[in-house]
Amino acid sequence: MRARTIILTAAAALSTAALACFAASAIAAPDTIDPVADAKAFRKYFTDKFPKVKLNDFVNGPYSMNADMRKQWEDMEQFPPYEFALEAGKEMFSKPFKNGKTYADCFSNGGIGIRQNYPYFDEKEGNVITLELAINRCREVNGEAPLSYMKDEMASLTAYMAYTSRGKPMDIKIPNDPRALAAYEDGKRYFYTRRGQLNFSCASCHVQSAGEHIRAETLAPALGIMNALPIYRSEWGGMGTTSRRLVSCNSQTRAVPLEPQSDEYRDVEYFLSYVANGLPISGPGSRP
Q1: Which class for 166: exposed (0-12), middle (13-18), buried (19 or more C-beta within 10 A)?
Q2: Could you check whether the bond before residue 81 is cis, i.e. omega within 30 degrees of 0?
Q3: Catalytic, out of 138, 202, 205, 249
Q4: Is 138 a catalytic residue?
Q5: pLDDT (tens digit, 9 = 90+) per residue, 213-237?
Q6: Could you give the domains of the chain?
């Protein structure tokens, strides 16, 4: 995101009213929480702003908005930079733990084709469960050490699991539980709240300035941004997880990053995934 280099002047002025409207709804009273209306408004904002972009194409981020970038991306997809992660992830997924079990024993449908159902709200526990968290819990219950949430093995595993769900529509549920609604609302509030030395929110770049340029980079729209994760980023020189993406966004706006898989990060993933319901899983993805 390289937010330290951003000079948001005219672009910010053009979008302030829309962003203010979203931000105001983010602090609504609990009895007015309406995820269905939020998702409808969220989608309308982006389809109105980018009328030439097909709805399902938003999951391709900046490649949906720039013809030259799209051509480069389509060429790159012939030999995708994340292919090494897919191969490693598939091998890790099928390799038995020391007790003889595998990841398939921890997930519905043997862990194949389920990415679109994460994150979900666990009503017994009262918390949002992401795919990354579920993977480490699977490891721990089978006597294995947890993986780093930021890259390497976790990125490879989630890349493989995402790949088995490619094309499936995001399908995030918010159960009829006030705690689930609160988690959704907390994630939405985090997304729209400004923080850090630059006083940026997640929405400053991915709603207000989506499609704008920072040097050679095009800011991705928030709609469908979770569908492409995990991603290979040229900037990173490797794969990164959803956790890494959230932590790096905080760092680049000179805010203090939270711990990976903190409540706040899991809730914002819940919010962004829910408002992308119906859009296809496209991960693993690649970005500049």
Answers
A1: middle
A2: no
A3: 249
A4: no
A5: 876 678 999 999 999 999 999 888 8
A6: 33-288 (1.10.760.10)
